[in-house]
Amino acid sequence: MQRGTRLSDGRTLPRSGPTHVPSVHDARAALGARLRELRVNAQLTGRQLAALLHWPHSKVSKLENGRQTPSSEDIRAWTGATNAVSNAEALLVSLQTLETQYAEWQRQLRTGLKPHQAKLTELNARTRFFRVFEPTFVPGLLQTAEYARARFEQSGRVFGVRHDIDEAVQTRIQRQEILYRPEKRFHFVLTEAVLRYRLCPPEVMLGQLDRLVSLSMLRNVKLGIIGFDVEYDVAPAHGFWLLDEDRAMIETFSAELNLAQPQETELYGRIFARLATVEGISYGRDARNLIANAAEHWAAYQPDESA
């Protein structure tokens, strides 16, 4: 018999069966279905509407089938051509919600790396309880300036945005001031792989590990590390941040997802609880021992100055 996850307050979280959580694709498909409805009500075929708007027919098809997100100009043009201008405002609200859910990096970083960090600063200021799971890299709130620079340089190479790395690093480090506010709570869960991945020079990683040890001793910061020998209850498929009970944030290669529907945040809350209480996870001194072991690993890459 499979047991649920035992929480720190004594409650048992039951294993959950398959759950359908509305996705960004669902939201895009729903918007496309509404656009199709307006076209059909106007007694226009897809080709006729495309001709009226001077669009390729494929664009109408992609919008209606949720394979492309319309712009606000597309919606205004569509509602005008279908004599449904009164529907434009509601559709634009749906579009704004969709764009909040799915924020493409190419669009977000168009003006540089710093503005996105400033946006996160404002969001973090409103958040009181942070739950963060990362299987690959050190979370931004725990990064040293040198580690942050390495992360931004990697992003810059992918997206061609490298003109404001210094400003982005400075803004990220300033964000970390919230770690010292007693009214805020932080629960970070990392995999041991985070301590070992070679995402920066060894000397940078050594400094980063030292900072993890220091921050793990803050009263309002709880740091858990899932060691290589731990058997997972839930696969560490991707990292995510839970901000209070209001939002789950996930970063992919192409976009930042912001999930705010209750069933979405509840699902990620259950997943975090499983990861944070998996049998064998290390906290406190045990977590710091794993960090120390990783530091010994990285120290072996340092040149022998006595030679």
From TrEMBL:
Gene3D superfamilies: lambda repressor-like DNA-binding domains. This is Helix-turn-helix domain-containing protein. One of its GO terms (molecular function) is DNA binding. Residues 35-75 form the HTH cro/C1-type domain. Residues 1-23 are annotated as: Disordered. It comes from Amycolatopsis rhizosphaerae. InterPro entries: Cro/C1-type_HTH, DUF5753, Lambda_DNA-bd_dom_sf. SMART domains: HTH_XRE (SM00530).
